[in-house]
Amino acid sequence: xxxxxxxxxxxxxxxxxxxxxxxxxxxxxxxxxxxxxxxxxxxxxxxxxxxxxxxxxxxxxxxxxxxxxxxxxxxxxxxxxxxxxxxxxxxxxxxxxxxxxxxxxxxxxxxxxxxxxxxxxxxxxxxxxxxxxxxxxxxxxxxxxxxxxxxxxxxxxxxxxxxxxxxxxxxxxxxxxxxxxxxxxxxxxxxxxxxxxxxxxxxxxxxxxxxxxxxxxxxxxxxxxxxxxxxxxxxxxxxxxxxxxxxxxxxxxxxxxxxxxxxxxxxxxxxxxxxxxxxxxxxxxxxxxxxxxxxxxxxxxxxxxxxxxxxxxxxxxxxxxxxxxxxxxxxxxxxxxxxxxxxx
Length: 344
Description:
30% of the residues lie in helices and 32% in strands. The protein is elongated, with a radius of gyration of 22 Å. The chain is α+β, with helices and mostly antiparallel strands. A 16-stranded mixed sheet has the order 8-5-4-9-10-7-6-3-2-1-13-12-16-11-15-14, sandwiched between helices.
């Protein structure tokens, strides 16, 4: 990772002026991120919701959307990530829970363990990490870490805004032709739409059709074709790096999958996540024209007007650090301010 690149790309809360940049990013991604649909009206509404959430005084988590954008040195939006304060509420949160059921008949010595999908509706659920999207031109530059983990620094600094448990729904497996085996074998029979159409409607927040059309009974995985069974809980190849990063943080498979593509859902306790437990609160003692002689760290300002960057951090003695002027400007901090630092 280039040191200058890492310092000058930074995260901040979305602003209303970011709508053209978000539309451009959504178009580049081709609708691959459910919560970032290439639709002007829905994206404008999502920005409004996020601006309101950041500006609201919160005593306990609700359905607030917090959307962050990754900006390059020119201020252009190149990625997004977000957090939902709590899933459920007015619109329920849906997932398939994988349960193992035992069927046995002792007189014949027959005992079978069968995996079954049970639909679960949650009205007061956990927080959710969502809307992770990066311009493909910036992949493999180390910025995925900034996009994903900076959210955890915000959660650490603003704990009252979030539940004790956080989840992340990961994009499910698709074959080389872009088809979801689970959707084609299950969902399409009930929704009579393509996976992309159903995913798009869900991303717009239109979930009434889910309650009306979802199958009413559990689904026995053993009745599905082998290639479909193998896809349940399997992430999309492009999502595997994000899943491994979250697993290193301490999130584990929840035993639930997405209702559309059967992508894995991971979960963990916020206060036990590596970034939340391991970050340090240090005071800025020196701001220099040149980068300090120190490691590249994940750094956040810990405020509601959040900023985060990957920046070189110098050691200035006990509980104090040095930053470059470029990093301090990206973070919106100066001498004497306290920053969050993840040294790993």
